[in-house]
Design brief:
Number of helices: 5
Shape: globular
Helix content: over 70%
Length: 184
């Protein structure tokens, strides 16, 4: 019995890390905006919370709509990431226009939603199996939060090396990841 639970926990951790990798990749681009460490910590916590809420909703709705709704969440997430990245890339050319997507307020909520939509899809499929919900949700949240922090801090370091080109690189990363989500 203990071997079964250990195997289940290892599987959940691998799934949590895989789901957190998109938050890491996207956070690399966002971290290039020279954010303060306090803001980086807050963003990681918000993304962790979304990685609890979205799969929980998915688990609750899993048996009813998993086959029909899962593909749409991937499409929406990819389009959001691409749109945010394109806006970030093109705003680098215009120093006078304000940034549309900031990691605060509604921009932060859209960002957190876009990187947690895939966890909703996973939640839909987990809803059809007997998964330990609390352990799963806490694993998803912890992995995504830690990987978000790591990506943003790494992106912050890269910004110091790249200067004015870092926002274009960050936008390109977001666009590329959005395209990967859509077509990968």
């Amino acid at each position: 019995m203990a071997v079964y639970y250990a195997g289940e926990f290892v599987s959940i951790m691998f799934m949590a890390i895989a789901l957190g990798m998109d938050a890491f990749s996207v956070s690399l681009g966002l971290g290039m905006q020279q954010l303060r460490l306090k803001r980086i910590a807050f963003i990681g916590v918000v993304i962790g919370i979304f990685h609890i809420i979205m799969p929980f909703i998915g688990i609750l709705l899993g048996q009813a709509i998993s086959g029909q709704f899962g593909d749409y969440t991937t499409l929406i997430g990819g389009l959001l990431l691409f749109g945010i990245g394109a806006q970030m890339f093109f705003s680098a050319f215009n120093y006078e226009s304000p940034k549309l997507v900031q990691p605060a307020g509604m921009g932060l909520l859209f960002f957190a939603l876009s990187v947690s939509l895939d966890s909703f899809s996973v939640g839909l499929s987990l809803g059809m199996s007997e998964v330990r919900t609390v352990v799963t949700l806490l694993s998803f949240a912890t992995a995504s939060m830690v990987l978000t922090w790591a990506g943003m801090i790494l992106g912050r370091k890269v910004h110091g090396l790249l200067g004015v080109y870092s926002e274009m690189l960050g936008g390109s990363i977001l666009c590329g990841f959005g395209l990967y989500v859509l077509f990968g």
